[in-house]
Fold:
Amino acid sequence: MPGSFTSSFSIEATRPNAGEVAQIADILPRATPVYFSAVPTITPAEIVTAAASLRKAGLEPVIHIAARRVTSARALQDLLARLRGEADVRRLLVIGGDIDAAGPFTDALAVIQKGRLRDAGFEEIGIGAYPEGHPRIPPGRLEAALGEKIASAAAQGLRVHIVSQFSFSAERIIAWLKQLRAGGIANPVKIGLAGPTSVPALLRYAKRCGVNASLRGLMSGAAAALIGNVGPDRIIDALAAVRSELGDVHPHYFSFGGLVDTARYAREKAGAGDAAPAIASSR
Structure:
């Protein structure tokens, strides 16, 4: 049943305002992880304020740290100190950021190795991964970098989970996860899924984020849904069917169609399977 896969989930938010935070706090289970995107124009003060707002609302803020956008080691330490001290942030998502480096950190690995994240009081980090590959990084390098990041973080006592780029192809996601597990990587994976969004909007985001390879899979079922929003139901069903083969995996919803609508969708999918654990335990 999908419930065993969807019952625990996280959501990606881009600059949520106070009204949106209040609304999703009423929809989502307490302590739901809400990942706060590192948009290029946001200031450190705005990041801290947003994190504090999410924490106050009873949600779990997970803040993106985009390595190449960090201007200096001091700027990173100042931001980390404020996130811990003012918003009780405990988890980060460390990514490269698709721009030229503005400071000393050339990629996510550099932040993990030199950013003193554990010393700053953080307990866990997420690292990015790409089921369809990366438009600018060779597959071999992607695989090696993933292993290096996990090893470096674990050596510092940081828990590590993986957050994947969204895809519209269940087959690609499943094949990637099986390859990951076969390679000995057992860390939890939050599988990127596009929340309920119009097909034209999904096409725009897919092209922008470099997931063109699965567009054919999206369009094969999209003709009847060009009016109104579509959600990742087919992918969720396919993943749920083989979840026992994939290890610790759960959805991570990108809120392209709006944060509140995505929160409602995620909560509905989670609620649909609430009975699944009880059924399993009664055997």
User: Anything to note?
Assistant: The domain at 3-270 is CATH 3.20.20.220 (TIM Barrel). The two ends are 16 Å apart (CA to CA). The chain has twelve helices and ten strands.
